[in-house]
Amino acid sequence: MDHPAKPALLTDTKPVGLMPRRNRPGSFPLAADITLVHSSDLHVDDDPHQGPYGEDGTTGLRVVLEAARSVDADYVLLVGDIFDSNRQSPALIARCVEMLADAGRSIVVLPGNHDPLTSDSVWKRGGLDRLDNVAILGLTHEQAIHFPGHDLEMWGHAHVDYSDMVPLRDPRPRTARWHITLAHGHYEDDGVVPLRPSWLISNAQIDATRSDYLALGHWNRAAEVGTGTTVPAFYSGSPDLARSVNLVRLRGNGTVIVERMGIELPA
Description:
The protein is of the alpha/beta class and 267 residues long. It has helices spanning 59-70, 90-101, 203-208, 239-242; strands at 17-19, 34-39, 75-79, 106-110, 134-136, 144-147, 152-155, 178-184, 186-187, 200-201, 213-217, 223-225, 233-235, 244-250, 256-262. The strands form three sheets. The protein has a seven-stranded mixed beta sheet with strand order 1-15-14-2-3-4-5. It has a six-stranded mixed beta sheet with strand order 6-7-8-11-13-12, with no helix packed on it. Helix 1 links the parallel strand 2 and strand 3 (75-79). The longest helix is centred in the N-terminal third of the chain and has 12 residues, at 59-70. The chain is globular.
């Protein structure tokens, strides 16, 4: 089988995040670099008139997994609205199960406001919750998952229904060398009257996570948010509009580098 060409880093931008932040000295031993691919808002759907990809509603998931494979990422972070809704057919779910099982790396999912963990949630059907390499926060893992090989913990509050909630409430204390937060919601700068009143995320809440990286979903455009002084917080944007994923490198020396990496979408 031919392997897809390696997606290029976007040439019209510099690295969108370079955080020379070190973990607490002496707390944990240094380790090899860790590579994450972060995406969100794939809106997988089997209605060709509903999703952004026409006949193949799994396109967004496929291109994100191909991008992760091309850089041999250790982890893929899928931060909400992976499915356009919970009303998906068994055939589509079966295709996604196969794609995720064949991804060849660990995948951490945070259900969003389009695909929340309701009683009829797509995440509870068809075997998505039984894949060995997939952790679904709020379902297979209550709030967090720890990967001891990298001393890496990822945590987040899943959407469990369609009502309002605070994505970054009750920040989890830091217990591992690497501390990654996932959140699906709308960022507003402190003091600004919010244009969208639901699922709000503030600068103070971002800083309170004390994360090495905050992976955000809900916006279709890629953006860095927050104060930029304490926690690197980034929306990946949706594959169809951003035409990229976020490539995050946790360096063995304790620094974090974030870049946008272009992806190939079918014409």
